[in-house]
């Protein structure tokens, strides 16, 4: 028999996750961790088995049938096996409920997002509708619309698969995704009932039982302030659509298991969520929740990639020894691990803040911090997941480029993280919006100093120094940039956002490393922190603004 390469294998994705488990031991009360661990272990097992199972069966995608054999328009969508399995699983494990229940108080969001992180890759993007459902529950609560809260939340937050509903988010139209001001969908009030007319260009998880949609009340002025937020239940109890047609399912680079549709609304009945304007402000709580899910999903992608590469490194022999024993492979993996580990601590810190804010236990500066860090976490992790997925293909080599290895799918799927829920530049601009409204940079820098003050070990001093130097450089840059022309400051917005995300993440990773050294005598987070500190934290142009000549459109 000639040589055969053994495929990478995943073991229980919770039990095997040193980073998650160490973090949970630090932040959660011991009794709570004991109570939730069986569930985490179950999902970790599900994730490992789902990876193995997916390698043995044909890939499947949702299918749209628009007409039945008798000529009736039916717009029936068949879902994939993973999606059919995910629905009851998500309800039973409380993937939405856990984030809203009072059982674990301020830790509810850490608990929920640990579940999401374990479930994401196995779910084949069923986490997309879960994210939107969580966001819709949060937006409806914030709206104070008691009728809709009583109607929808018992479904969105149910742990009973029979009762559980998912919810869509219908914003994007042909004229704009980032900018919703040109929205063309019109809402008419007819016989005391609102009906929507128009076209939505991207509607993710069109099989959802509910949706939140932006539309312009008839006669309202142009612009985004005049848009209103509506709640819909798109189908009748017998499954037929309520004046909605599904034009087609999108042919996407990745997330192909997720039924993303282009639809027409031809008088779809809807209910106003709040006043008939300021719909963007009303849907904003949803955006911040889905962006947090996005960051957790991106993190899950990184973790999956690294787990596969690490296992492959032990199985693959080159130049007479396993890859895992070769210095350059070790260094490549170490670089990926350090980036992932820093990102992990930033994202889960955001979930801690979210839990505190929603329980009313966050002071003003923590609320500002959450507002500032959410777009930063979304922006940085989205890009990082693509880089790590790309490196994963390369680490696994030729087979990593072959579809049936499952590795290219990781890369194609990862490319969605920096795009949907607001592309990277939208996040950078949102961060600048938040800087203007959330008390400036001070809450972020002062939280960073407090975190850093907990880092005492001499072996972590290079990390603390790197954070202090970067913070000084950022503050100086902002001072120069805000004194200059606004569009040139805006042009540095990406670098500002990446730099702040990476610097804050290093402070958090170093603090965890300090705890791991003292409480568990574990030097590994410290090694990751030092390695991350060696990577470049900032790309900001030190003397301030971008070159105006290069920004001018006629310079090409
Ligand atoms: O992609 C989509 C579906 C995919 C689902 C994936 C789920 C994740 C899966 C995870 C799995 C693990 S749906 C499409 C998503 N689309 C977007 O994200 C839109 C991107 N564009 C933006 O975010 C823009 O910044 C806009 C649309 C928000 C800009 O709108 P405006 O109206 O021009 O912006 P304004 O005037 O600055 O903001 C209007 C109000 C202001 O409040 P007031 O009126 O009180 O001054 C803002 O402060 O909204 C407030 N606001 C916010 N508040 C705007 N953004 C935010 C925010 N992020 N947080 C709080």
Characteristics:
five-stranded mixed barrel, two-stranded antiparallel sheet, 11 strands, single chain, globular, 556 residues, Butyryl-CoA Dehydrogenase, subunit A, domain 2, 18 helices, binds ligand UCC, alpha+beta
Question: Could you spell the SSE succession in H and E letters?
Answer: HHEEHHHHHEEEEEEEHEEHHHHHHHHHH
Biggest pleated-sheet summary? 5 strands, mixed, barrel
- Strands ordered across the widest β-sheet: 4-5-9-7-6
Radius of gyration: 24 Å
Ligand names: ligand UCC
User: Poorly predicted ranges (pLDDT <50, ≥5 residues)?
Assistant: none
Question: What percentage of amino acids are in beta strands?
Answer: 5-15%
Strand-pairing-aware structural class: alpha+beta
- Our count of helices gives 18
List how many beta strands DSSP finds: 11
CA-CA gap between termini:
58 Å
Q: Give the overall shape.
A: globular
SSE blueprint:
Blueprint: H1 18-27, H2 30-56, E1 63-67, E2 73-78, H3 81-92, H4 97-100, H5 108-123, H6 127-143, H7 146-156, E3 167-170, E4 186-190, E5 193-203, E6 210-217, E7 228-232, E8 244-249, E9 261-272, H8 279-315, E10 317-318, E11 321-322, H9 327-358, H10 364-396, H11 407-414, H12 424-437, H13 442-452, H14 461-483, H15 486-491, H16 493-520, H17 524-534, H18 548-551
Parallel strand pairs: 3-6, 4-6
Antiparallel strand pairs: 1-2, 4-5, 5-9, 6-7, 7-9, 8-9, 10-11
Helix pairs in contact: 2-5, 5-8, 5-9, 6-7, 6-8, 8-9, 8-10, 9-10, 9-16, 9-17, 10-11, 10-12, 10-16, 12-16, 13-16, 14-16, 14-17, 16-17
The structure holds ligand UCC.
Ligand UCC binds at residues 120, 127-128, 131-132, 169, 171-172, 177-178, 180-181, 204, 224, 278, 280-281, 284, 287-288, 290, 293-294, 296-297, 420-422, 426, 430, 433.
């Amino acid at each position: 028999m000639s040589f055969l390469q053994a495929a990478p294998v995943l073991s229980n994705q919770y039990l095997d996750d040193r980073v998650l488990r160490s973090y949970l031991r630090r932040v959660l009360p011991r009794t709570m961790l004991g109570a939730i661990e069986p569930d985490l272990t179950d999902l970790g097992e599900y994730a490992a088995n789902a990876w193995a199972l997916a390698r043995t069966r044909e890939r499947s995608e949702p299918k749209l049938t628009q007409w039945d054999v008798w000529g009736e328009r039916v717009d029936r969508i068949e879902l994939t096996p993973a999606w059919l399995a995910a629905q009851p699983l998500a309800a039973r494990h409380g993937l939405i409920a856990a984030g809203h229940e009072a059982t674990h108080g301020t830790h509810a969001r850490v608990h929920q997002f640990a579940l999401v992180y374990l479930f994401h890759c196995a779910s084949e993007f069923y986490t997309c509708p879960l994210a939107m459902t969580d966001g819709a529950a949060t937006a409806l609560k914030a709206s104070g619309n008691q009728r809709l809260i009583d109607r929808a939340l018992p479904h969105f937050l149910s742990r009973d698969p029979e009762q559980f509903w998912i919810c869509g988010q219908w914003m994007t139209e042909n004229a704009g995704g980032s900018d919703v001001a040109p929205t063309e969908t019109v809402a008419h009030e007819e016989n005391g009932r609102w009906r929507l007319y128009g076209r939505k260009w991207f509607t993710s998880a069109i099989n959802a039982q509910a949706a939140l949609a932006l539309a312009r009340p008839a006669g309202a002025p142009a612009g985004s302030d005049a848009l209103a937020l509506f709640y819909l239940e798109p189908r009748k109890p017998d499954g037929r659509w309520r004046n909605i047609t599904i034009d087609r399912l999108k042919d996407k680079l990745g997330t192909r298991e997720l039924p993303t549709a282009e639809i027409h609304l031809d008088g779809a009945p809807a209910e106003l969520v709040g006043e008939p304007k300021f719909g963007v402000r009303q849907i904003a709580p949803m955006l911040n929740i889905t962006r947090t899910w996005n960051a957790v999903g991106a993190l899950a992608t990184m973790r999956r990639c690294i787990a596969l590469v690490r296992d492959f490194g032990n199985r693959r022999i080159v130049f007479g020894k396993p890859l895992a024993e070769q210095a350059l492979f070790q260094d490549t993996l170490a670089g990926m691990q350090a980036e992932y580990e820093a990102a992990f601590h930033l994202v889960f810190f955001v979930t801690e803040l979210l839990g505190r804010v929603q329980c009313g236990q966050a002071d003003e500066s923590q609320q500002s911090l959450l507002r500032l860090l959410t777009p930063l976490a979304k922006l940085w992790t989205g890009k990082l997941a693509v880089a790590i997925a790309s490196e994963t293909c390369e680490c696994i080599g030729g087979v990593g480029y072959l579809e049936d290895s499952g590795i290219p799918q990781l890369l194609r799927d990862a490319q969605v993280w920096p795009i949907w829920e607001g592309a990277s530049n939208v996040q950078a601009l949102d961060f600048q919006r938040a800087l203007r409204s959330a008390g400036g940079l001070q809450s972020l820098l002062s939280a960073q100093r407090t975190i850093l003050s907990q880092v005492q070990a001499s072996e972590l001093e290079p990390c603390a120094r790197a954070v202090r130097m970067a913070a000084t450089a950022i503050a100086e840059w902002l001072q120069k940039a805000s004194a200059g022309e606004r569009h040139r400051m805006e042009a540095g917005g990406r670098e500002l956002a990446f730099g702040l995300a990476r610097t804050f993440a290093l402070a958090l990773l170093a603090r965890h490393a300090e705890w791991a050294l003292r409480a568990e005598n574990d030097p590994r987070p410290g090694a990751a922190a030092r390695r991350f500190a060696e990577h470049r934290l900032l790309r900001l142009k030190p003397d301030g603004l971008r070159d105006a000549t290069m920004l001018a459109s006629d310079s090409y």
